[in-house]
Design brief:
Elements (H helix, E strand, L loop, with lengths): L2 H14 L20 H7 L4 H8 L8 H10 L4 H10 L16 H8 L6 E5 L4 E4 L1 H7 L12 H7 L12 H19 L4 H12 L1 H7 L9 E8 L3 E11 L5 E7 L5 H12 L2 H11 L3
Antiparallel strand pairs: 1-2, 1-5, 3-4, 4-5
Helix pairs in contact: 2-3, 4-5, 7-12, 8-9, 9-10, 10-11
């Protein structure tokens, strides 16, 4: 771990960012250039004291989870993220692995989407970021751990995951998830998280095994679907997708037909917020 290089890099990247770059209000009487330390800490979901110690070369070696959070907070490119990991004394994550690092370009777009649900996912169906309306519509999917972070694992092994879709559309969704998994497996190869996830599902789900044997390969660039919210009911939306250049991550934006009842339901989501849905999801996810 190169404490001096790490501290200087964090400080310079913090000073190069402006509040508007990360979706914050500019405020008044900003004496320091760029972001404040407490703002970076807030964005990275850590204490201000911990972040301050890193900049002052006094902190312990940060974990890879902390580095991933800092990479997102500071809007680092893949090259900058790699440098951060090296200065902190960690191996650089594979760029085609299921990394929690989020593309800065996709994150900038997400930061500007406040009136419609939007989320960033990996090519393995791991939700990396969600805006407020996406959490209200689909629940918070970013705090899960282990295989539960991946949509395919939840879809085939947790029946309640399918309640978000009408029953008549669930077979189509199953095939689409498996076809996307095979596309990710083809891109990432045998020694990868994709292969490990496929092996886990082949062992655990007869349905996944049957669909996997069909050899279907596809990535969805757009979709039209109905999502069922536990309080509001069914909402018909169009899903548009923006991929990174290497197709490893995608920004999903969900919109409804203008001036339709479904658009009104999305507006209602903004009023209801996440409290009721969050409480319901916490009850469902509690250990049994």
């Amino acid at each position: 771990m190169d404490r001096a290089a790490l501290a200087e890099f964090l400080r310079r990247r913090r000073e190069d960012l402006q509040p508007a770059d990360v979706g914050l209000a500019p405020g008044v009487r900003r004496r320091a250039p760029g972001l404040r330390r407490e703002e970076v800490a807030q964005l990275a979901l850590m204490s201000t004291d911990y972040y301050t110690r890193l900049e002052q070369q006094r902190g312990p070696q940060p974990s890879t989870q902390v580095l991933a959070s800092l990479s997102r907070a500071l809007r680092l490119t893949a090259d900058e993220r790699d440098y951060l990991y090296r200065m902190a004394g960690h191996a650089v994550p594979c760029r085609l692995s299921a990394s929690p690092h989020v593309s800065p370009a996709l994150q900038r777009v997400l930061d500007r989407l406040s009136d419609t649900p939007a989320l960033i996912i990996s090519n393995l169906g791991e939700t990396l970021l969600q805006n407020r309306l996406a959490v209200a519509l689909m629940g918070d999917q970013t705090g899960r751990t282990g295989w539960e972070r991946f949509e395919a694992h939840r879809w085939f092994l947790r029946p309640e995951e399918r309640e978000r879709y009408p029953e008549h559309d669930r077979d189509r969704q199953s095939r689409a998830i498996v076809a996307g998994m095979r596309a990710a497996y083809g891109a990432m190869g045998a020694p990868s998280v994709a292969a490990e996830l496929v092996a886990e599902l082949l062992r655990s789900s007869d349905e996944f095994r049957e669909l996997w044997e069909r050899q279907e390969v596809a990535q969805r660039f757009a979709d039209h679907k109905v999502l069922i919210h536990p309080e509001i009911g069914p909402i018909e939306v169009d899903c548009q997708v923006l991929f990174t250049e290497d197709l490893s991550q995608a920004l999903l934006v969900l919109t409804a037909e203008p001036r339709s009842a479904d658009e009104e339901k999305l507006r209602l989501l903004g009023v209801l917020g996440t409290q009721q849905f969050g409480a319901r999801q916490a009850t469902r996810d509690a250990p049994r």
